[in-house]
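Database export, one record per block. Field names are fixed; values are copied verbatim from the stored entry.
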Amino acid sequence: EELQAALQKIDFRKIELEGNKVRIQKGQELTTGSFLKAFAVDRVVKELKRAGVSDALINAGGSTIRYLNDESHPFWDIRVYDPDVREQLLFGLKLSNGCFSTSAQKETRIVIDGKEYGHILNPKTGFPAANKQVGIVGKNAFEGDMLSTALMNVPSEQWKPLLKQLDERWGVSGFVIDENRKITFSDNFNENMTTE
């Protein structure tokens, strides 16, 4: 009953935007964790470029990594770890001039009656997203972070066709680790992967 009451408040159409002001319904809450940090990272990159910096890596807590490269340093090595076994490397990525964003149910969990629950929720059910981790390679942090969080709720069997559409629109690639630990990659993701 408490969950159903909370679900009634989840509706982006009830958010009113007027100029630089936002009005939400009583009992609603906006949480910017999935994208505000990324927005700031993109602003930092803009300022670095304005200052003439052409080679840099900005790591905002591991979930948002933005990188710039020049001819002297053509790519950055990024490592992707298992969401359940933190020290276990899944694969490496060689990336240039873009962003790697990841969302996972690993760091912020709660335990209720002996069962672990992740912090990324499905807005339709109110329960945690079933997927364990999503990674997105794209052009900027803002889009990557929003996509990686939203895609936590997409069933893995729908993932490839959806990522194909997102690649055509925004030039992104990615992977999902589902609740059964199966990894599904977008068609163009392998070009970035290494075994290191």
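Remark 1: The chain has one domain: 32-194.
Remark 2: The first strand starts at residue 16 and ends at 18.
End of record.
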